[in-house]
Write a structure and sequence with these properties.
The protein has 7 helices and 7 strands. By secondary structure, it is an alpha/beta fold.
Length: 252
């Protein structure tokens, strides 16, 4: 799918991987809607880049529907959805007490249910609209999993479970939507320089950098480049792309 003039929605688009994706899409000539909870940062991006900002709780059906309606009122269609919204916690299954059930539920609600909620509602719009571009694709959905979905660390039981769920969505969702000419792809990033990775303890961060074959964190621009590739490569469907610098997570 051609990015120029495509209508693109990015959840979690006000910071980190989402923000760099928004900036890349704007540079490529897309029409971009940023769906995020952070009104201050979202408004700043709206003023700087000319994007449409919608304050959205991805876990809420009503909130997502309202943002979708507002996006459609401006551009009538949605061609690309990039799901970057997510949260992370560090909590052991047991230390002095059992892992909090509420925090486990919260991580799954945002990272997994939020992805499904936005995807199902935007997909319904995509299948109802005419095809876009020469190949007449109706839409592309790109979800963000994590290397932790496959090689989770201590204290990541909730995060890893949620991201494994996101990876598991890719193929069945692609099969569900393929007949409508809507593709689904997933990126499983390793460690990137984001506000979320800044929360890691310095010793852990250093050990994880050494676990890559390139000896560094990923650059945000490299994630955005992967998003661009997945939008434009119309044969990539239903698979998970590991974007991790050849990292094998150690047992720490």
């Amino acid at each position: 799918m051609k990015i120029t003039q495509a209508v693109c929605v990015v959840t979690g688009g006000a910071s980190g991987l989402g923000e760099i994706t928004v900036r890349m899409l704007c540079l490529e000539g897309a029409k971009v809607a940023v769906w995020d909870t952070n009104q201050e940062k979202g408004t700043q991006l709206e003023q700087e880049l000319g994007v449409l900002f919608c304050q959205v709780d991805v876990c809420s059906e009503g909130s997502v529907k309202q943002a979708l309606e507002r996006t459609l009122s401006v551009w009538s269609q949605v061609h690309v959805l990039v799901n970057c919204a997510g949260i992370a916690i560090q909590e052991l299954t047991f230390r002095d007490s059992p892992h909090s059930l509420d925090s486990f539920k919260k991580v799954l609600e945002v990272n997994l249910i939020g992805v499904f909620n936005t995807s199902r509602l935007v997909a319904a719009q995509m299948v109802s609209q005419p095809g876009y571009g020469n190949t007449r694709e109706r839409g592309v959905i790109i979800n963000t999993s994590s290397l932790s979905a496959f090689e989770g660390q201590r204290g990541q039981v909730a995060y890893s479970a949620s991201k494994a769920g996101v990876a598991g969505l890719s193929l069945p969702m692609a099969r569900d939507l393929g007949r409508f000419k809507v593709r689904v792809a997933t990126i499983a990033p390793g460690l990137f320089s984001t506000p979320m990775s800044d929360l890691l303890k310095p010793q852990l961060k250093e050990a994880l950098q050494k676990a890559t074959s390139v000896g560094r964190l990923g650059y945000l621009s490299e994630f955005a480049h992967a998003v661009k590739f997945l939008i434009e490569n119309e044969y990539f469907n239903g698979s998970v792309l590991r974007l991790d610098g050849g990292m094998t997570l150690p047992h720490l």
